[in-house]
Write a structure and sequence with these properties.
about 70 residues; about 55% helix
């Protein structure tokens, strides 16, 4: 996997998570349990910018609905 050398914005984070989700499934790993656990630890604050309604906690908890 290519190393990311700069911080990701929300869109970049979503794209990276989609790739990780797909890779995990290809390896027979159910990524939802892990995403939900991390989601519980994640911020529920709205970020600034175009995707201001996309809170990381909700994004991770409902990620399987996006893929």
């Amino acid at each position: 996997m290519k190393r990311i050398s700069r911080p990701l914005d929300t869109r970049g984070t979503i794209l990276a998570l989609e790739r990780l989700y797909s890779m995990a499934q290809d390896l027979g790993i159910d990524p939802m349990l892990h995403l939900e656990e991390v989601g519980l630890l994640s911020s529920d604050e709205a970020p600034a910018g175009a995707l201001a309604n996309t809170r990381m906690r909700g994004l991770l908890a409902g990620f399987h609905e996006r893929v």
